[in-house]
Amino acid sequence: MWLRLRRDVQIVEQRIEVTPSNAIAEMAKWYLPTEHQLITVVALDTGSQLELQWIFSAYGKLNDRTVFRAYFDYSALIPTLTRYIPSAWIIEREIVDLFGVQIEGTQPGLMLDSDSIQAPLRKNK
Amino acid sequence: MFRALGLAFKNLVRKPVTRNYPAEKLPKAARYRGLVLWKKEKCISCFICEKACPPGAILFTQNVETGEVEFHLNPYLCIYCGECVRACPDRSNALTQSEELADAGISADQINSSWSALEISAADSKLKYRARKKDKK
Amino acid sequence: MSRTYVIPLGAQHVSLLEPIRFLFTVENERIASVEADIGFVHRGIELACATKFKFKQVPYVVARVCGLCAVVHSTAYVTAVERLMKIETTRRTKWLRIVANELDRIQSHFIALGHTSECAGFEALFMACMKDRETALELTEAFTGNRMQFDYVNIGGVNRDLTPEMALLMKKKLSLLKNRVNDLQELFMSNWSLSLKYKGIGVVSLEDAQRFNATGPIARASGLATDLRVEADMLPYGDVGFELALETAGDIHSRNVVRLRELANSIRMIENILDGLPVGDIEVPVKGNPDGDAISHIEAPRGQCIYMVRGNMTSTLDRVKIQAPTFANIPVIVNAFVGEEYGNAPPILASFDPCLSCTAR
Questions:
Q1: Phi-psi region of C224 (alpha: psi -120 to 50; beta: other; left: phi over 0)
Q2: Which residues in C lie closer than 8 A to residue B83 (C-beta atoms)?
Q3: What is the per-residue pLDDT across A55-84, written as a single tens digit (0 to 9) for each?
Q4: Touching C: which chains, 3+ CB pairs < 8 A?
Q5: Crossing angle, helix C252-275 and helix C91-119, to 10 degrees?
Q6: What residues does each domain of chain B span?
Q7: Annotation: CATH topology of A12-103
Q8: Which chain C residue has the Cα nearest residue A13?
Q9: What's the first-to-final CA gap in chain B, in angstroms?
Q10: Among partner residues A9, A98, A112, which is closest to C233 by beta-carbon distance?
């Protein structure tokens, strides 16, 4: 009997607004390696600022997602998450390349060469 | 081991699983996605297919005097998704996707340059025709 | 006293399907540290999606992110936009999308198994896997109209319906394929020479999988029970008989076993769908332009495929973020090489089934 009625579950996205200065500290306090998974870091250009969304999911739970959000200036040195979650280095290197911002301890050159178009996803260059 | 030996002998005398391609035709699946065909008499010149086409492989040029449209398809740019056929208001009449005619396999000379020239002239002809229509009013 | 050498693997290498470069620092035969360069095929698809194409055309653009898992990308994008625009697709659409995704998973897992066995030096098994993959490709051609690049889903529905004749043909071929998967399972489980190259090599422990946020078959082979087919309900996998394949050893062998079990499960799911496909339309009309943020998660053959879409009330989107499974797995791949012998690097890499076009986009 494989046919079961489908439960209609709304997707719960817990959104947490954090300030640029305590973003990493908040996440490090909340994150448990055995329960949470960093899915991705989304960078968005709002036109005047860089918006970063750290998206986490929980292992084995249906539609459980937590989004941390913070806004940064283009010139600001963005703190790194790699200290707490070692796999974040690759996403941070990509953001550095595509947006031309600076993240603590992150070198550019993962996606783009030095002779290609720099910071293609930045809106006002 | 005997099973393996038996298999080996079976494979020795069995016909190959591959097909002798250029000599032997490949079987085509039913509802194969082939060339997009256009019927002039059914077309109402709404240009929806031109706007819907993801790679921009459809262009219409318009005769400035009579307003008659002509359909151009770049078979090398087309991705054969059928989005134009679905977007067409007169479904399965004005635009159809052929099940027999194959997509273009052999590259032609200077498709890119002639196609970009056509892109400009197509936009230009439509603008001119619209301006002319306005003048008449 | 040991001397260290730096040996590159890639960007062109016989064991690679796509360009990636690893710089191995080798002490005698052991790999001491690894550096990865993945950006060889960066094509700027995210930028193109947000500038050049209208949101209704983007499903066909993101399908070109990857050749092997094309329909997953379109499905993930389409679900995100449907969430934005509050479109509820019909049940038939969702079930047909599962069929397309699972057919895609079948052919992708076959190529992964074949490639792993080729890198272990078993050419005949590679040929056998590719022959069975042909059956899967014939199925996708019958179902979607193309062998690769299916272009099957669009916003609000799917592009073609399933006819009864097609369902009959698919069932016939699937039962053939099921026998072949059983044979392969026996071979992969019991072949002694394969076990020499697979068992205990390239081990990703459960702690490492959690620390480096591994996804897909790699995580499941390490005993980390994560699968978006149960963790997200973008597609109703619970209705069609999904079972989680979980192994605990974390080596190449268990990754192969996870893939084989998923193959069998995918075939079973498609058979279930063909038996009980709900009736209804395959398309719902789409009006207006998207606005706001939406995230969608779909389990790709290699792991999590995540799309983040932001609309701005125009026909062109503000931002499309694509997170491909291999991109998320690169840190765990790099970590798994450390401490292994250099000669084992190709089979380890192949067992991770990297897809670099996805990764670089």
A1: beta
A2: 57, 60, 154
A3: 888 887 777 778 888 888 888 888 888 888
A4: A, B
A5: 150
A6: 32-136
A7: Beta Polymerase; domain 2 (3.30.460)
A8: C295
A9: 90
A10: A9
